Amino acid sequence: MAKMIKSLRKHADKAERAALSVLDRDLAEGLQALARAYRAQADVIRSKKKKMKKAS
Q: How far is residue 39's CA from residue 17's CA, in Å, rounded to a whole number?
């Protein structure tokens, strides 16, 4: 699971960097939204992982 979280955060970073480099505003906003979605997924996985550890 740690690899998946790390991978999602890497994708979010790449999407943010791409958003900063494009000139099209709509595309930049879409990439920012994608980055937020990747981070949200990583946070959900991390919280589920913590809950599983507490239950053990």
A: 14
Q: Which residues contact 9 (CB under 8 A, 6 or more apart)?
A: 38, 39, 42
Q: How many CB atoms lie within 10 A of CB 38?
A: 20
Band the pLDDT of 27: cuts 50, 70, 90: very high
Residue 39 · residue 11 · CB < 8 Å: no
Rounded Cα distance, 15 and 36, in Å = 9
Give the type of residue at 48: K
- What is the per-residue pLDDT for 20? 97
Residue from 40, 39, 37, 15 nearest 28 by CA = 15
